[in-house]
Amino acid sequence: MSDIANIKLSNAQIAWRAAQDIEDGSYVNLGIGFPEMVARYQVAGRKAIYHTENGILDFGPAPASGQEDWDLINAGKKAVTLNPGAAFFHHADSFAMVRGGHLDVAILGAFEVAENGDLANWSVGKGGVPAVGGAMDLVHGAKLVAVITDHVTKTGAPKLVERCSLPLTGVGCVTRVYTSLAVVDIEGGRFVLREKLAAISLGDLQAVTGATLNLDGPVADLIVPEL
Amino acid sequence: MDKTIGDVAAAVADIPDGASVMIGGFGGSGAPIELIHALIDRGPRDLTVINNNAGNGRIGIAAMIDAGMVRKIICSFPKSKDPRAFTEAYLAGRIELELVPQGTLAERIRAGGAGIPAFYTPTSFGTELAAGKPTAEFDGRGYVQERWLKADYALVKAETADRHGNLVYRKAGRNFGPLMCMAAATTIVQATRIVDPGAIDPEHVVTPGLFVDRVIGVPDARQEEDLNIEGAVYA
C-alpha cells in the first residue's frame, strides 16, 4: 500500500484545488479556519465575492499589523479589509442570504462526511462547552456545499464514511468533497470518484475510504502545483 | 420625543433582578461595553443574557458572569480567545446554556420584533439541536419549527443616533443591533455621536427610532477587542 503521508496534498493544495471550481462572479462563504485558505488561491481573472455571516459582502485580506479595525472582522473574528463595492448588513439579512439559497458556494471543514451527504463538523460529542455558530445554517442554502478535508483522521481512520458517527451538522447537504487524495462528488446517496492522485491506486484509495467509491465515467488525475 | 438620557448609569437603572437582556455585538464588534459595565455597577442578579457569544476576557459579558449576575445565556458560540468566565461557570453548573444556531438566533430575535411567534427553518433539521422541536415537510424538505425570542431590555451600540432614536451603525458592528432593537420591550442604545433630528439622511437610517426607547451619548466609547488587547479587567 502506498504511504499516504508521503503523497497526500497539503492543506494549501487542497484549498487550491477547491478554488479552481469557483467561477467568476460567484458569491462564496468560506468556513472558519482551513476553508478561509481557499481565498488565497482565487483563480486570476475571476472575481469571487466573499460573504462573511457576521455581516459583510466583499471583504478583502487582513490589514497590516497595527492597522486592524476590530469593528471590521470576519466570522472567525479576524480583522479584514473591504473591497470597493463592499456592503454591510444585519444578521437576519446575512442568514437570509445563506438559507435563501442566494450564495453560490459554501466551503466547510469536516470531521466526517457520509455518502448520503450528511456532514458532521461541529461537535465531537464529548463533554466540554458545546458551540455551533453558523455551521448548521451554512450547510443549507448555497447551491454548491463543498467540504475540504484530509482524507483520513490523524489516526488514519476514514473521514468519508457510510454514516456519520458524530453529531450531525446537517443531513444530505454536501455535494462535493475535496480531500488530500481525491475529489469526490455525492450523487444519489453515494460517493462518485472524479479525481485521484496518480500516485495512489484505486484499491489503496478505497482501503482508506469508509464507503464505496463509485465510478461514473473516467477518473481524472488530481494535479495540483507545489505550493 | 427627545429620547436622550443623561448617562449610562441612568440608562440601565431600572433593569431588575431576573430580567432578560439582549446585548448586541458579535465578539467585540458592536459590543456596548459602557452600557454593560454600567449594568455591572448596578448589579442585578439572575439575568438571562442573549448574545451571539458568552464573553471574552475579563470585561463585558465575561465580567457580568464573573460578577455572578447571569443565570442563563442564549447564544450560538460560547467560545472566544479567553472564554474562562463562561467555561468555568458552565462546567461548575452555575450557568445555564441554550445553544442556538447563529442564523436561527438572528431569525428568532427578528421574529420576536416582528410579531411572528414561530417559523420553520431548514437549519438544525435532523440534528441534536432540533430535539423536541416540531418538524414539518415543505416541498419535500424537512424543516424545524423555531419560536420567537423577545426580551425585557436590549443594550445596543450605534455609531450615530439622533434624538428621536434613528440609528446608524459602524461597519460589522451592526450585526444583531437592528434585530435586538425590535425585539426588546425597552431598547437602550449607546451612540458614539448624538445628532439633531434631520442630521441623518432618512435614506441612510438603519434602525428607525420607533424601535428605540433611550439614547445615551458615549463619545469616548471603547472597542471590546482593543480593551482585551490592553488586558483590561472590569470588576
What's a concise summary of this model?
The complex is a heterodimer of chains A (227) and B (235). In chain A, 14% of the residues lie in helices and 28% in strands. With 227 residues, chain A is of the alpha/beta class.
Topology:
The complex is a heterodimer of chains A (227) and B (235).
Chain A: H1 4-7, H2 11-19, E1 27-30, E2 49-52, E3 56-60, E4 81-88, H3 91-99, E5 105-108, E6 112-114, E7 119-120, H4 135-138, E8 144-149, E9 160-161, E10 176-179, E11 182-187, E12 190-196, H5 202-207, E13 213-221
Chain B: H1 8-11, E1 20-23, H2 33-42, E2 47-50, H3 60-66, E3 70-75, H4 84-91, E4 96-99, H5 102-114, E5 118-121, E6 135-138, E7 141-147, E8 151-162, E9 167-168, H6 177-183, E10 184-195, E11 214-217, H7 224-229
Parallel strand pairs in B: 1-2, 1-8, 2-3, 3-4, 8-10, 10-11
Antiparallel strand pairs in B: 5-7, 6-7, 8-9
Structure, described:
The complex is a heterodimer of chains A (227) and B (235). With 227 residues, chain A is α/β, with parallel strands linked by helices. Chain A has one domain: Glutaconate Coenzyme A-transferase, CATH 3.40.1080. Chain A is built from 5 helices and 13 strands. A 10-stranded mixed β-sheet of chain A has the order 4-3-2-1-5-8-10-11-12-13. Chain A starts with a helix and ends in a 6-residue tail after the last strand. Chain B has a single domain (8-229), classed as Glutaconate Coenzyme A-transferase (3-Layer(aba) Sandwich). In chain B, a hairpin with a 2-residue loop joins β6 and β7. Chain B has helices at 8-11, 33-42, 60-66, 84-91, 102-114, 177-183, 224-229, and strands at residues 20-23, 47-50, 70-75, 96-99, 118-121, 135-138, 141-147, 151-162, 167-168, 184-195, 214-217. Chain B is globular, with a radius of gyration of 18 Å. The model of chain B has no long low-confidence stretch (mean pLDDT 98). In chain B, the strands form 2 sheets. In chain B, strands 1, 2, 3, 4, 8, 9, 10 and 11 form an 8-stranded mixed β-sheet that branches. Chains A and B meet through α3 and α4 of A and α4, α5, α6 and α7 of B.
